[in-house]
C-alpha cells in the first residue's frame, strides 16, 4: 500500500520535516532529525528508481484529482535518475554537516540552517518529480528562497552580498520562467505537462508560443548558470558555508538542467525545439565558449572554491553541448554528466570543507604542504580532480567519452577538439592545487595541521569512491541515461 504513495512522500517528507526541524531549536537534535530525513528520502528515491528501471512510468494524482484538473507527480527514468542523485547527495552531505556547521555557523542559527536545507532539498525534489508546469515555478521558488538564506549564513561578510546578487539574478530568472508558463497557459488553458504536450503541436506557428519558449530557456539558463548568465555563481559558491557549497554545486544546477530538458523535449516537442526554434544554434556556441573560457578563468583563481565554481560553469557547458548535438548520444552524455558531475563536485567541495575546517580558508597558498598533513582529505580531492579532468576509470571519463562520440557522430571535429582542450585546461587548474599541497612545505611559522575528523572524511570518501565505482561499473547510469534519452527523443524524425 505504501509503495503507491512513494512519489508524493518523496517531497512531503522533507517539506513537512522542515517545519518540525525549526521547532527543534538549537543543539544536535535538528541535525540528527535532518540526517534521518535525508536517509529516508534517499531510500524512497531508490525504491522509485527500481520501479521505473524497466522503462515504465509512475503517476500519482494528488488529492485524487485526475490530470489535467489536478496536479500529478510523474516519474520516468529521467527524473528517477535525478531524484537518486539529489537525495543521494543529501544523504551524504547531512551527516557531514554536523562538525562543519559547528565551525562555520553561529549556534543560535543551527536550527534555521537545517530548516533551510530541508526546504531547499524538498524544492529540488519537487521540481524533479512534478508533472505540473506552474508547480515547477512554485517549487523552484521554495528551493531558491531557502538557498538565498543558506548562502547568507557564510561567515565572510561577502556572503551577504553574494546572496543578494543571487537573489536579484534568481528573481529575474524565476520571473522569466513564470512569464513563459503564463503565456503557454493563456494559449492552451492547461498547466499539466502531458496535456501541454498534446495541445502545443496544434499551435506551433504561434508567435506567443515562441516567445514563451524564449522566456523559459533564458529563465532556466539563469538558474543553471548558462554562460553568460553565470555571474551569480562564483561568489555564491565561494562565500557560502562549505556544506552549502557542496550541496548546491552537486544538485541545484543539475535540477535546473533537468527542468530545461523537460520543457525542451516533453512540453515542447523535439521538432519544435530543434527545427522551429533551432535552439542548437544558441546552445552550441555558448556551451563551447563556456567550456573554454570558464576553464581558462578557473586557472587564474587563487581561491579554490572560486576555481571550482568556474569549473562548474565549464561543466554545465558540457551538458548544454550534449543537448545541442541533436542526437541520442549527445543527450545520453548530458544525462550522464548531470549524474557524474554531482559526484565530482560533491567530493571536491566536501574535501575543501575539511580543509576549511582545519585551516579556516581555501586559498591555494594556504594549502601548501597539506598533502602530508591531511593525506586522506587531499587524496579525495585528487580523485575528484581526476574525474573532472576525465581520466579513464573515473565517472568523468564516461560522460566525456559519450560527449566526444556524439560530436564524432555529427562529424563536428572542432567540438571534439574543444572538449579535449578544455580537459587539458582542467589538468592545469587541478594541478595547481596538487602541486602546492604535495610539493611545497607549510609556510614558515604556520601551525601543524591535523587530518580532518572522521565525520568529515567518511562522507567525502563516499563520494570520492563513487567517482571510481561509477567510472568502472556503468550499468546503472548508462542504462538509465540511454533509456531517458530515447524517451526524450521519441518524436525525433
From TrEMBL:
Compartment(s): Cell membrane; Membrane
InterPro entries: CPA3_Na-H_Antiporter_D, ND/Mrp_TM
Major subcellular location class: membrane
UniProtKB keywords: Cell membrane, Membrane, Transmembrane, Transmembrane helix
Domain of life according to the entry: Bacteria
Topology relative to the membrane: Multi-pass membrane protein
Family membership: Belongs to the CPA3 antiporters (TC 2.A.63) subunit D family.
Protein name as annotated: Cation:proton antiporter
Amino acid at each position: 500500500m505504501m509503495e503507491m504513495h512513494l512519489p508524493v512522500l518523496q517531497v512531503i517528507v522533507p517539506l513537512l520535516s522542515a517545519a518540525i526541524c525549526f521547532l527543534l531549536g538549537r543543539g544536535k537534535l535538528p541535525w540528527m532529525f535532518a540526517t534521518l530525513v535525508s536517509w529516508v528520502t534517499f531510500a524512497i528515491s531508490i525504491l522509485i528508481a527500481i520501479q521505473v528501471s524497466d522503462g515504465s512510468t509512475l503517476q500519482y494524482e494528488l488529492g485524487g484529482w485526475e490530470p489535467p484538473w489536478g496536479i500529478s507527480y510523474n516519474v520516468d527514468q529521467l527524473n528517477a535518475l535525478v531524484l537518486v542523485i539529489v537525495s543521494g547527495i543529501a544523504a551524504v552531505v547531512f551527516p557531514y554537516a554536523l562538525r562543519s556547521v559547528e565551525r562555520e555557523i553561529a549556534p543560535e542559527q543551527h536550527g534555521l540552517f537545517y530548516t533551510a536545507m530541508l526546504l531547499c532539498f524538498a524544492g529540488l525534489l519537487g521540481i524533479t518529480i512534478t508533472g505540473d508546469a506552474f508547480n515547477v515555478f512554485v517549487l523552484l521558488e521554495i528551493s531558491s528562497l531557502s538557498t538565498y538564506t543558506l548562502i547568507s549564513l557564510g561567515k565572510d561578510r561577502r556572503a551577504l552580498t553574494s546572496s543578494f546578487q543571487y537573489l536579484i539574478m534568481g528573481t529575474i530568472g524565476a520571473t522569466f520562467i513564470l512569464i513563459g508558463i503564463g503565456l503557454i497557459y493563456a494559449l492552451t488553458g492547461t498547466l499539466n505537462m502531458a496535456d501541454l504536450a498534446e495541445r502545443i503541436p496544434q499551435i506551433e506557428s504561434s508567435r506567443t508560443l515562441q516567445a514563451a519558449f524564449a522566456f523559459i530557456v533564458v529563465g532556466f539558463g539563469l538558474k543553471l548558470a548558462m554562460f553568460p548568465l553565470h555571474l551569480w555563481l562564483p561568489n555564491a559558491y565561494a562565500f557560502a558555508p562549505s556544506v552549502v557549497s557542496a550541496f548546491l554545486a552537486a544538485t541545484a544546477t543539475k535540477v535546473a538542467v533537468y527542468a530545461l530538458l523537460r520543457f525542451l523535449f516533453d512540453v515542447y516537442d523535439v521538432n519544435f525545439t530543434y527545427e522551429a526554434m533551432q535552439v542548437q544554434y544558441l546552445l552550441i556556441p555558448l556551451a563551447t565558449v563556456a567550456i573554454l573560457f570558464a576553464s581558462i578563468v578557473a586557472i587564474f583563481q587563487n581561491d579554490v572554491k572560486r576555481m571550482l565554481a568556474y569549473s562548474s560553469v565549464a561543466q554545465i557547458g558540457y551538458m548544454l553541448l550534449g543537448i545541442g548535438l541533436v542526437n541520442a548520444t549527445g543527450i545520453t552524455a548530458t544525462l550522464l554528466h548531470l549524474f557524474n558531475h554531482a559526484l565530482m563536485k560533491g567530493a571536491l567541495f566536501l574535501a575543501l570543507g575539511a580543509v576549511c575546517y582545519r585551516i579556516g580558508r581555501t586559498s591555494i597558498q594556504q594549502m601548501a604542504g597539506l598533502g602530508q598533513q591531511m593525506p586522506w582529505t587531499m587524496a579525495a580531492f585528487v580523485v575528484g580532480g581526476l574525474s573532472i579532468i576525465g581520466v579513464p576509470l573515473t565517472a568523468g571519463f564516461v560522460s566525456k567519452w559519450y560527449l566526444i562520440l556524439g560530436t564524432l557522430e555529427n562529424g563536428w571535429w572542432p567540438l571534439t577538439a574543444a572538449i579535449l582542450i578544455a580537459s587539458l585546461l582542467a589538468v592545469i587548474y587541478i594541478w595547481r592545487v596538487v602541486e602546492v599541497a604535495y610539493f611545497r612545505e607549510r609556510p614558515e611559522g604556520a601551525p601543524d595541521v591535523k587530518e580532518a575528523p572522521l565525520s568529515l572524511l567518511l562522507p567525502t570518501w563516499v563520494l570520492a569512491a563513487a567517482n571510481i565505482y561509477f567510472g568502472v561499473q556503468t550499468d546503472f547510469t548508462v542504462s538509465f541515461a540511454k533509456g531517458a534519452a530515447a524517451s526524450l527523443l521519441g518524436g525525433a524524425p
